[in-house]
Model the fold of this input.
Amino acid sequence: PQVRLDDVQSLHLCQGRDVAAPAEAAGPLLRAYDAAGRFLGLVELGADRRLRVQRLFVPGAGTAPAHANT
Done:
Protein backbone atom coordinates (compact mmCIF):
# COMPACT_ATOMS: atom_id res chain seq x y z
CA PRO A 1 0.00 0.00 0.00
CA GLN A 2 0.99 3.60 -0.48
CA VAL A 3 0.45 6.98 1.13
CA ARG A 4 0.72 10.40 -0.49
CA LEU A 5 2.13 13.23 1.65
CA ASP A 6 1.87 16.99 1.28
CA ASP A 7 4.97 19.20 0.93
CA VAL A 8 5.38 19.83 4.68
CA GLN A 9 4.91 16.18 5.60
CA SER A 10 7.40 15.16 2.89
CA LEU A 11 9.99 17.62 4.17
CA HIS A 12 9.58 16.44 7.75
CA LEU A 13 9.79 12.80 6.73
CA CYS A 14 13.01 13.46 4.77
CA GLN A 15 14.40 15.08 7.92
CA GLY A 16 13.67 11.87 9.83
CA ARG A 17 10.70 13.24 11.76
CA ASP A 18 7.50 11.33 12.44
CA VAL A 19 4.46 12.77 10.65
CA ALA A 20 0.72 12.41 11.14
CA ALA A 21 -0.71 9.76 8.83
CA PRO A 22 -3.41 10.72 6.34
CA ALA A 23 -6.81 9.20 7.14
CA GLU A 24 -6.59 6.72 4.25
CA ALA A 25 -3.27 5.23 5.45
CA ALA A 26 -3.65 1.54 6.30
CA GLY A 27 -1.20 -1.26 6.86
CA PRO A 28 1.89 -1.61 8.97
CA LEU A 29 4.35 -0.80 6.16
CA LEU A 30 3.66 1.73 3.40
CA ARG A 31 5.35 3.27 0.39
CA ALA A 32 5.51 7.05 0.86
CA TYR A 33 5.20 9.48 -2.06
CA ASP A 34 5.36 13.27 -2.09
CA ALA A 35 2.67 15.51 -3.61
CA ALA A 36 4.40 15.33 -7.02
CA GLY A 37 4.31 11.53 -6.98
CA ARG A 38 8.02 10.97 -6.26
CA PHE A 39 8.83 7.90 -4.17
CA LEU A 40 10.35 8.90 -0.82
CA GLY A 41 10.77 5.56 0.90
CA LEU A 42 9.18 3.08 3.26
CA VAL A 43 7.33 4.15 6.39
CA GLU A 44 5.74 2.32 9.28
CA LEU A 45 2.28 3.25 10.55
CA GLY A 46 2.30 3.25 14.35
CA ALA A 47 -0.63 2.61 16.70
CA ASP A 48 -0.59 6.38 17.36
CA ARG A 49 -1.38 6.98 13.62
CA ARG A 50 2.06 8.52 13.02
CA LEU A 51 4.34 7.55 10.15
CA ARG A 52 7.92 6.65 11.03
CA VAL A 53 10.75 6.31 8.52
CA GLN A 54 11.94 2.77 7.90
CA ARG A 55 14.07 3.45 4.81
CA LEU A 56 14.41 6.62 2.74
CA PHE A 57 15.20 6.58 -0.97
CA VAL A 58 15.83 10.26 -1.52
CA PRO A 59 17.83 11.27 -4.63
CA GLY A 60 21.34 12.37 -3.75
CA ALA A 61 21.38 10.64 -0.36
CA GLY A 62 24.74 9.07 0.36
CA THR A 63 26.68 11.33 -1.96
CA ALA A 64 29.15 13.87 -0.66
CA PRO A 65 28.42 17.55 -1.26
CA ALA A 66 30.56 19.16 -3.99
CA HIS A 67 32.52 21.20 -1.43
CA ALA A 68 33.37 18.17 0.75
CA ASN A 69 36.74 17.58 -0.88
CA THR A 70 38.02 21.15 -0.66
DSSP finds one helix and five strands in the chain. The first helix runs from residue 7 to 14.
